[in-house]
Specification:
This protein has 216 residues and is mainly α. It is built from 7 helices and no strands. Keywords: Membrane, Transmembrane, Transmembrane helix.
Length: 216
């Protein structure tokens, strides 16, 4: 009985097969029209998914700071969900911007430079500002270790608070610049906005405690 080929030989055989399978998949997808359906779905719903994900990010971020109800394991779980929904929101946001530019609903310049859209400068500009703000907050979260000192931790906290203003701009952009939102969606976002406003007001009134120099 012949010996099986070594792993290196099997890998060498698989390398050309993977690109060929990918090309075959893309050809079948284009032929069947699935790509058009995907683009149509992203055109209509990528922005909604981004707004829902980023709304969840804000809410879970606030939940992660609670010390009255949640214990440490629960706060750690809330932080993990906060990060996961943030990554998902940024991914959907990138798809939303790219598809809208490709489909001609706005221009790349208007998507990059606030308030330069020819048809709806204010609403599209709010979305652009929100996108820059969320990206800045995400970067600051990724390099949180650079703000480990007590003084720099306050800068991190102030920078992270920008997310709330960005979320409000994203809500305005999402609810007014696209198709009319359902009544339940408007009510849900309104309740979320009110809840965040109350929780943020309570948090701002409380003294900022940074045990051991770690930011909160």
């Amino acid at each position: 009985m012949p010996a099986p080929p070594p792993p290196s030989a099997r890998n060498a055989l698989l390398r050309p097969a993977l690109p060929a399978a990918l090309l075959l998949f893309l050809a079948v997808t284009l032929r069947s029209g699935a790509m058009d359906n995907t683009v149509r779905f992203l055109d209509h719903d990528a922005g909604v998914l981004a707004l829902v994900s980023l709304s969840a990010t804000v809410l879970w971020g606030l939940a992660a700071t609670d010390q009255l109800v949640l214990h440490t394991p629960h706060r750690l779980l809330a932080q993990a969900v906060h990060r996961a929904t943030g990554v998902a929101g940024l991914g959907f946001l990138g798809l939303h911007i790219g598809v809208k530019a490709v489909e001609g609903h706005t221009t790349a310049t208007a998507a990059a430079v606030p308030f330069t859209d020819g048809a709806r400068p204010l609403l599209i500009g709010c979305g652009t500002l929100a996108a820059y703000g969320f990206l800045t907050v995400a970067v600051s979260g990724a390099v949180r270790g650079a703000f480990a000192g007590r003084t720099t931790a306050r800068w991190w906290w102030a920078l992270h608070t920008v997310a709330y203003a960005c979320w409000a701009l994203a809500l305005l952009h999402g609810l007014k610049s696209g198709r009319a939102a359902a009544g339940w969606a408007v009510a849900g976002y309104g309740m979320a906005l009110a809840g965040v406003a109350v929780r943020l007001a309570l948090r701002l009134r409380a003294p900022l405690r940074i045990p051991g120099g770690e930011p909160r």
